[in-house]
Design goal:
Length: 99
Amino acid sequence: MAAPESIEVQVCYALPDAAFLRTLDLPAGSTVRQAFEQSGVLQQHPEIDLAVNMVGIYGKKKTLDTVLRHQDRVEVYRPLQADPKEARRRRAGGKASKT
């Protein structure tokens, strides 16, 4: 069976109050970086810096040169606003002091 000439992928960028989600047809062999460039997300959200923001496919960190497969969902991640461990400690400490 011959390899497909094009693949369909989604590009996703989630914000607290909105989300960017675009489906693209790209040539087979396209990379994560190419998907971001073709999607328009970088123009619509100039705060995204691919040199700084982590990226991934379906919640798993990947590099910009990762080759995409058909039906991958490419994501760009925002920095955490709070350290998850510290937030958990605050919640646990707050509950303990109420008893």
